[in-house]
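Task card 7
Instruction: Convert sequence to structure tokens.
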Amino acid sequence: MAGYNLQVTADGITFNAKYQNLSKYERPKIEAKAPDGTIVSEKSTYQGQVLGPGATQRQWVDDQGNVYSKSELTFWYEGEQVQENSMTKVFQVESYQPLANYTDRYVIDTYYEIYPSNNGMKKDFDREVAVNANLSQMYKLWKKLMDEKVVGRGEFCSSSKGFIMSDGYIRAISTEGKWGLEIGKFKEEKIFEHLNEGQPKEVTLSQPATGKKKLKMI
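Output:
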């Protein structure tokens, strides 16, 4: 699977990377509506006729074949009007949070693996130089996150037609002697209602005297 381009910046560390979705996340269903409220979908057309798969022209069309420009449409999610967000090209780490927040405070919606970009170079030598340079900067960020036991937080929209903006958290990965980086997007904050404070005191329960002998067979 081809990855998407992303530049990552944090505390003087900058590198170009690729990222790809490793989860089975499904995009939320967004409804497009014409000015009169008619549901509209984007389809392939030619001279007003809807085409089959593989066509290059895409237009917004209702069930009666009426064509609308995108500027005429409004977009809705679960009854509320939403706006379209542009795809994130630069992931700017705006703050850091404790690593425990990644697992304890948020429900992961989807996650993306990050790997170094070759910067689109054509020659093998130039591609190798670009990958190594980006990998070196990646390692600097990975080490910072590992040493400080934190994750980096920044605004992150992974779709070119994204309607729901989210924060992404970049995290250092270390497994089986290998290292890497991932960005996790979160669906919601975890709310716990039965957490406890302090260490509980141990209570020893004694059996009440009954005046009767307890028989035990050996």
